[in-house]
Each structure stands twice: as structure tokens, then as C-alpha cells.
Sequence to fold (133 residues):
Amino acid sequence: MDNKISRFKAREQGFILIFEKIFNEESIDVIIENAEESREIAFDSYAKELANGVYENTETIDECISAHLKKGWSIKRISKPSLAILRLAVYEMKYNDDIPDSVAINEAVELAKKYTIDESKFVNGVLGAISRE
Fold:
């Protein structure tokens, strides 16, 4: 399956893994294995890289997100889909030098339009603030 899906689709798969990990104590590898067996899904290598990278760096990523939220907001107040999208984008912005911030932000906004109820502006605002840092 590698190299046969678009980078956006790979990000979308990564988002799904990151989102599922929020609710699941299993490792990313076990989540992938279970999904591939039960749902006959084959995950792209970039999706796996994103999911593993986010969860190896969740604490640092969440600190970065928290530092750029409006006063009175915390990570706990962010919807789970938006949090997964923010984590994915911040991971790309901070740990993947091959991806320009603008691409990570645009792709995150597209995921937010698809998977959240009107939170794309929020996602864009937080990521824009992080990018300007």
C-alpha cells in the first residue's frame, strides 16, 4: 500500500490512529495490528510514522499546544478530534523538517473541516500561533 495513497490520505490514516489512541491504552502497533486484522485496513508507512511520533512526543506536543491556547483554555477543553489533528500537525511542524509549516497547517484545517463540527478556524488559529513562534 505504501506510495499508493496520497500524503493527505496517509495523514488521515495517521489522524485516525492518533484519535483512537486517545481512547485506547494499547500501543500504536497493537492498535494498527487490530485494525488491520478486524477491519482489513492496510496503513501507510507515513501514517504509522505520524502516530508513533505523536505518541513518543505527546507531552512536549501538548505543552506546545497548551502554550498557544487562549486564556482559560486547556488541553482538556479541546474536542478529541481537534486534539488529534493538532497533535498530528504540531508533530509535523516540530519534528519533520521535510514538511513546511504551511502544508501541515493546511492539511490539518482540511482534516478539521472533515472530522470536526466547525473547528477548522480554531485549529488554524492555534497552529498559526505555533508557526509564528
About this structure: The mean pLDDT is 93. Residues 7-132 form a domain with the N-utilizing Substance Protein B Homolog; Chain A fold (CATH 1.10.940.10).
